[in-house]
Amino acid sequence: MTKHILILNTGGTLSSKKSERGLVPELGKDDILKDLEWVARDCRIDYEEMYSLDSANIVPEDWKQIALRIGDVYNDYDGIVIIHGTDTMAYTASMLTWMLCNIPIPVVLTGSQLSIMDPVADAMENCRLAIHMAAAGHPGVFVAFNRKIILGCRASKVRTMSFDAFESINYPYIATVDSRGLRVAEDKIPPIGGKFRVNVNYSDQVFLLKLFPGLRPDIFEALYEMGYQGVVIEAFGLGGLPSRERDLIQAIAAVIEKGMLVLVGTQCRYDGSDMSVYETGRKGLACGVLQMREMTTEAAVTKLMWALGQTTDRDRIEEILSSRRP
Ligand code: ASP
C-alpha cells in the first residue's frame, strides 16, 4: 500500500541559496518538491512550509508550534519528515521526543550540509533516508543523517563540515543502510508506553553552564536572581565539581535550598557521568544535584525545560528526568 508522508520544512542549509547576505534558507516548494518526489519513489508526499529559518533562529516557541502541528495531522499520515537546519536539530529532536510522548507514527528529522541545489549535496540522500524511515512504520522521533538513523534524544551534531555530522551518543544507532538495505534494530526503539498526547508545556527558565577551572561561584546566585528555575552543568569528567578555592558546591547548595534544580553531567562527549566515583562528584550529590548520567546536553536541557513545564515538585521532576519517556 502506498505510504502517505508529510514533509514539514522549517529551513536550514537544505533549503538555502547563496545571497549577498550569505547562505539563507529561501528555497520554496517549487524549488525542492521535484527532488523530494523523486527520492520518495512509491510514497505519496504532502509538503508544508512551516518556517524558512536558519536553525540558529529556532526558539522554544517553534518547538511547540511544530509539536502542535504534528498533533493536529498525525492521524492522516503514515509518517512525518521534518526538514531542519543541522545546527540546532538535536535540540528540536530532543524536545519533540518529550512533547510528542507515545507518538504512534515515525517523526524523522533531517537536513543537510549542502543545499539541495548543489549537485554534489548530501540533501537528496538524507531526504531519501528520512522519507523511507518515515514510511517504515516504527513509531518515535528520529534523526536521519548520512545513512544512519538516530533516536531523537540521542543525536548530537559533532562535525561542522563533514557529511557525517551527527552521532548517536551513548546509544546504538536505530538503523543503518548498506548493501542489505535499511536495517532497523527494532529492539533499540523504546516501546510505546501509553496513550499519545501532545504536551507542549515547558519552562524557558533553564540555563546551560559549561565549567572551567576558576569559574566564579557567585554565578549561581546571579542566575537565581535572574529567575532561572533550573541549571544544567557540564561538569568535569564523571561529574566533578570544584570545592577547594572557588567553592561551587556551597554556591550550588545555596540555590538548591531556595528551590532551583541543578542537573549535572559531563563535558566529555561519550560515556556519561557517574558522580558516585570521586569525592568531587559525591559532594555534589550530597548537596542535592541531579545527575544527567548518559543523557546528551541537548536532551538534558530540553528535558529539564519540559519537566519544569509540568511541575515544580522536585521528586516528580527527578522521576521525569530518570524516565526514558516522560
Ligand atoms: N546554519 C544551518 C542551520 O542550522 C546549518 C545547516 O542547516 O546545516 O540552519
Structural notes for this entry:
With 326 residues, this protein is an alpha/beta fold. 30% of the residues lie in helices and 24% in strands. It is built from nine helices and 16 strands. It has an eight-stranded mixed sheet, with helices on both faces. It has a four-stranded parallel sheet with strand order 13-14-15-16, sandwiched between helices. Strands 2-3 form a two-stranded antiparallel ribbon. The two termini are 33 Å apart. The structure holds aspartic acid. Residues 12-13, 54-56, 85-87, 111, 113 line the site of aspartic acid.
Secondary structure layout:
Elements: E1 4-11, E2 17-19, E3 22-24, H1 29-40, E4 44-53, H2 60-73, E5 79-83, H3 89-99, E6 106-110, H4 123-135, E7 140-145, E8 148-151, E9 155-157, E10 166-168, E11 175-178, E12 181-184, E13 206-210, H5 218-225, E14 230-235, H6 248-257, E15 261-266, H7 279-286, E16 290-291, H8 297-310, H9 314-322
Parallel strand pairs: 1-4, 1-5, 5-6, 6-7, 13-14, 14-15, 15-16
Antiparallel strand pairs: 2-3, 7-8, 8-11, 9-10, 11-12
The chain binds aspartic acid.
The site of aspartic acid (ASP) has 10 residues, from loops.
- End-to-end Cα distance, whole Å, is 33 Å
Bound small molecules, deduplicated: aspartic acid
Strand order of the largest sheet: 4-1-5-6-7-8-11-12
Biggest beta-sheet profile: 8 strands, mixed
Shape: elongated
Structural class: alpha/beta
Main attributes?
single chain; 326 residues; alpha/beta; 8-stranded mixed beta sheet; 4-stranded parallel beta sheet; 9 helices; 16 strands; 24% strand; elongated; binds aspartic acid
